[in-house]
Amino acid sequence: VVDDHDMAVTHVIRGDDHLRNAFRQIPIYEAMGWQVPAFAHVPMIHGADGAKLSKRHGDLSTMAYRDMGYLPEAMRNFLARIGWSHGDQEVFSREELVRLFELKDVGKAPGVWNPEKLLWLNGQYIRQRPVADLVELALPFYREHEFYNSRGIEIKPDERFHRMIELAQPRVTTIAEFPDKTKFYFVDEVEWDEKAVKKFLKPEAVVILHRMEDELAALPEFTDHAIEEAFTRVAAGMELKLGKVAQPVRVAVTGTAESPGLFEVLTVLGREATVRRIQRAIQVASAQPA
């Protein structure tokens, strides 16, 4: 009571587990002739199992979440939404929260700590961030990542790295995921996903890969547009849908059947590395059982 009075506290918002304390504190304020603050007691936060939030539910410090790659604006949005809502809106800017938040809209039931919702929100805010911001935020994660350190790979925030981050931006939910999402750019030989190899690097893909190897090797300029035109020519010449041509090449250069835009990935990877990986994929596809 004395501390709050000395700090001119006018409003006290706390968990409803402190409700009984208010009945001890108010008489002290009145006895001292001090203004009684406005008290608001809101429901506690529970885990998904209905139990009071504890470390087993993931209530780490905010610094720990920062170190796991969560953005401050995502955490602020997430915390504000626990037990409070404004229609069906999920994503709120700071200005919107200041304008819309009212204690009367806080529910009477305990809010639930939902890590999946926090992860989703973080992904939404990552997509809103300028690429230059993400580069600065991601660099410490690269410099602490075992994959890059063990290979002596020095990450420089150059134009090529900016493009890698931009291409990975829609596909990550934390900043910490960027190093793993971009590893395939930095290896001499990609690691194959067995399911992708069995599905797309079949013997019949050999002809497609040879055609793409020749087309890409002969391009005057290795740009997004030129690469897209090369794929279109091969698809038209072989009377195939573009996806039938693109997927074997995607697996060849990234090791998986899912990646950012293929034409853009090849531009960042470069002609020499692209052709080399396609040649390796031809060997793999040729050795597959028919």
Structural description of this entry:
This protein has 290 residues and is mostly helical. It has four domains: 2-42, no CATH class; 55-124, Glutamyl-trna Synthetase, Domain 2 (Glutamyl-tRNA Synthetase, domain 2, Orthogonal Bundle); 130-185, Helicase, Ruva Protein, domain 3; 194-287, Orthogonal Bundle (Arc Repressor Mutant, subunit A), CATH 1.10.10. It has 16 helices and four strands. The strands form two sheets. Strands 1-2 form a two-stranded parallel ribbon.
CATH architecture of the largest domain: Orthogonal Bundle
Morphology: elongated
Look at the helices and sheets and give the structural class: mainly alpha
Any idea of the CATH class of the largest domain? Answer: Mainly Alpha
Tally of extended strands? 4
Number of helices: 16
Across the major sheet, the strand order is 1-2
Mean pLDDT: 94
When the domains are counted, the total is 4
The rounded Rg comes to: 27 Å
The helix fraction, in percent, is 55-70%
The H-and-E topology, N to C, reads as HEHEEHHHEHHHHHHHHHHH
Q: What is the third-level CATH name, the topology of the largest domain?
A: Arc Repressor Mutant, subunit A
**Strand percent estimate:** under 5%
Q: Termini, distance in Å?
A: 81 Å
Biggest sheet features = 2 strands, parallel
